[in-house]
Specification:
The chain has four helices and 15 strands. By secondary structure, it is α+β, with helices and mostly antiparallel strands. The chain has a single domain, classed as Alpha-Beta Complex (Creatine Amidinohydrolase), CATH 3.90.230.10. The strands form five sheets. Strands 1, 2, 4 and 5 form a four-stranded antiparallel sheet that branches. Strands 3-12-11 form a three-stranded antiparallel sheet, with no helix packed on it. Strands 6-10-13 form a three-stranded antiparallel sheet, with helices on one face. Bound molecules: 2-amino-4-trifluoromethylsulfanyl-butyric acid and cobalt (II) ion (2 copies).
């Protein structure tokens, strides 16, 4: 299978990406203290199925039981929505949305701060978003996957945070998770060379403590081994002739780097 998408694929991926982004915009006002992660799942499911007419990709994916992933505080990724998990003041939560539209996947996630959060929680969420944006800023023809990973790792470690190594970004298209694997750490100038028409996610998981993970007995929920906070942001990206297009950019979202410069996409 070629890693280069056709113009038809690319147009469908733009639509899938926009639909995934729209689910995050839809759910944002509901992310408040007192709501359960099951209710967030129900709202997103209903919006995807009845309004957007897309398929929630996580549902039944390798047996995943719900339509979205909700990862709270020390949960790194793949948290399962449940009526037992009620958001409280000071929580941080990642909501990860993947839709299937006309056979094509759009995959994106973001952090939400619930009420008054600690300075550490604020800093972790901000730095992990900057890590995503710095990774995106590396994306262009001729750059390497190691350039992306290195930009992310360098920023996280400069802030005394760690990069999760056990999970990574991925190629995406008609298949949810396809080649190549996108590591969020690495050395500049190493690994696969990017070419126009490639589509993949960048989705750094950044921990306040060590990078080590533990899989809970439900076989899905991934937590930090030291139970410290973790944060993640994700976009689906297209390598273009001139740079990068962020297929899951939200309306009003501007990609600003810590240097103050903006990444122009699309
Ligand atoms: N959306 C996740 C990703 O970014 C994958 C979730 S798989 C699931 O790749 F089964 F947990 F939903
Ligand atoms: Co993904
Ligand atoms: Co995702």
């Amino acid at each position: 299978m070629s890693l280069i998408k056709t113009p038809v694929d690319i147009q469908a991926m733009r639509e899938a990406g926009r639909l995934a982004a729209d689910v995050l915009v839809y759910i944002a006002p509901y992310v408040q203290a007192g709501i359960s992660t099951l209710e967030l799942d129900r709202l997103c499911h209903e919006y995807m199925v009845s309004v957007q007419r897309v398929i929630p990709a996580p549902l039944n994916y390798h047996g995943f039981p719900k339509s979205i992933c909700t990862s709270v505080n020390h949960v790194i990724c793949h948290g399962i929505p449940t009526d037992k998990k009620i958001l409280k003041n000071g929580d941080i939560i990642n909501i990860d949305i993947t839709v299937i539209h006309q056979g094509y996947h759009g995959d994106t996630s973001q952090m939400f701060l619930v009420g008054d959060c600690s300075p550490l929680a604020h800093r972790l969420c901000k730095v992990s978003q900057e890590c995503l944006y710095l990774g995106i800023a590396q994306v262009r023809q001729g750059a390497t996957l190691g350039d992306i990973g290195n930009a992310i790792q360098t920023h996280a470690q400069a802030q005394h945070f760690s990069v999760v190594r056990d999970y990574c970004g991925h190629g995406i298209g008609k298949v949810f998770h396809e080649d190549p694997q996108i590591l969020h750490y690495g050395q500049p100038g190493t690994g696969m060379v990017l070419r126009a028409g490639m589509i993949f996610t960048i989705e750094p998981m950044i921990n306040a403590g060590t990078h080590h993970t533990r899989l809970l007995s439900d076989q899905w929920t991934v937590v930090t081994r030291d139970h410290q906070l973790s944060a993640q942001w994700e976009h689906t990206l297209l390598v273009t002739d001139t740079g990068v297009e962020v297929l899951t950019l939200r309306p009003g979202e501007e990609i600003i780097l810590p240097t103050g410069t903006a990444v122009v996409t699309g």
